[in-house]
Amino acid sequence: MKPPRTTTGERGVTLLELLVVLMLMALIAGIAIPMFGGGVSSSDLKSAAREVAAGLRFARDQAIAQRAESLLELDLDGRTFRVPPDPRTHRLPARLDLKLYTAQRDLVSEKVGAVRFFPDGGSNGGRITLAAGERKYDVDIDWLTGRVSILE
User: Fold this and answer.
1) What is the CATH number of domain 42-151?
2) What is the pLDDT of residues 133-152, one digit of tens each?
3) CB 78, CB 33: distance < 8 Å
């Protein structure tokens, strides 16, 4: 008796071929994903909001401790802020959209402004909005108490 005939056209995928295809897909994904990314990650955005809030709280504490007005200066174009007389300038992520809502007297120009704190802990109030695409955080400053809070 003869053994049954097998078709020679049937062939499976080898492990080596499968690994090559997976490596090519990983390489393409590694190149393509950063090109279409939003630029600022959620953690960077939240970190920037916390850093601005910490700067505002520092300015408030400084006003209370020194019994003199203190302010946080915010440069919207440069995406930096500082709390004078401290010479350090804090940088925020480059692709971040910033908006400042504050008292008219504390606007130096369209792109530079400040939030002022008074010796009693109060403030001129305002809001700093940090956004990246659809995600945003609002850092609110209560005018009466000077309390700083972060809202999503």
Assistant:
1) 3.55.40.10
2) 888 999 999 999 999 999 98
3) no
